[in-house]
Amino acid sequence: MRYRLLVPIAIVLLAPAIGAHPHMWIDGILGLEFGANGIEGIRVTWMFDQFNSADMLHQLRISPRGQISADQSREIYETAFTHLRAMDYFILAKQRNRPVPLPDAVDFTASIDRGRLVYEFTIPLSMPVRQANELVLAFFDESYFISFMTLAASDAYRSGGATLELAQEPLRLQTDGWGNVQITALRTVVR
Amino acid sequence: MTRRTTIFLASVILLLALGAIAYAQNPFVRPPSEQPSVAQGARTGMRVAVPRFIREWSHALQSGIADLTTAVQDDRDWGAGLTAFVLALVFGAVHIIGPGHGKVFALSYFASRDARPGAGLVYSAIVNIVDSLSAIAVVMLGYVLLVAVAPAFRVEAPRILEITSYSLIVVFGIAHLITHLLPHRGHNHGGHAHDHASHDHDHDHDHDHAHDHATGKPPMMLALSVGLIPCPVSTVLLVYGIVHGAVPFMLLMVAGVSIGGFAAMSAISVAVIAGRHQVMRRLSTGAAAAASTILEFVASGAIIVVGLLLLLAAV
Question: Measured between beta carbons, which residues in chain B are less than 8 angstroms from residue A175?
């Protein structure tokens, strides 16, 4: 029976294609900060999954039921955050297919929310609202160790007489050796 | 130094290294320059599309397991515990069908020789059992010990285990190739004559050509090498158990993930075995022999090349 031959072959051919290998899950929340000159920063909140939170806090000798002091937050910043600069803090920022340069993060804090490790930081940005159309933002780890879920802190902002909306958009990106994955990005629409 | 002491010290070093590798894969604690990008490229070697449901399900499943675990801890809700176990089974299956976990080696191996489905099942069982035991050993002994006494060592030590594991895989690939180059006992070859009277293998299986003997023996060394490196998911589950005082429950979750992984890996291995068997049955004796020989060389070559790439990235 030919179909009997096709089934195992199809499974074999599909097996390597069913590629997924994240070992860490982070809910990433993007918020925009506005000032007199328009967008002045991207406020980022990362909520690590509970299991990796326990693991990372254990490395730092911090109880997941406790609080992170200012000194501990500084230690986390130095030992488990600053080197992410080389990976643009896992932030994909493009406008009309051109990458938007991201400076060093500021205002970093680490905290614990119901057992989950939380990073918060700001990426300074200077962009008039009228020029902020078609800005695509997402979190993405090319090594695919982390699976990010990109969420918007707010769907719309009003600034300088304009309305900036954040719409969800599917985006397919190539990982470093694990195949390409579809993620959900946020695209700005200025009205 | 007595043999027992040597074994003990070797075990301690191995556990420290195992703990280190689990720790060092986390990009938050390992600088990007030390990330083995060459190895990552070698893991799939193709630009395939990852089905969206894999990413979304794994995200949702781990979140569900975490919430249910909290319910078990806070409210002693054992119904939630049972549901968490079911989710762990599904999570294990979804997680294992992604790249990694030695599937490229299993695919290569079982595509290269006529094995029985049982060999695929045993291979999958060994990989997942060894992986879980490795994770338990790492977390209970190596990982906790490392955090307490030698945190800096964890950054360097992963290379030891990576080099050991990938070297074993390369050695396995070369040995696998040699077995196909040299006439020997109990093995299948087309195109050359040998005395079947000296063979001790079973001939009661269903095939229609004389030189493709299904073997029920799983590739033990390959399975052990692949399973040796603990999955970070298992290690973080266990660390969570230690931190939150829920080790027995998290052991149950690791078992669930492992059983789900076993089911998925078995399905893939048995599909490869069945696929190869079906193809060979439809080929003439000569074509089957030629195809078998080509598959053996290609598969052995693939194991060696991928193992070498991973090894080079680790060195």
Answer: 50
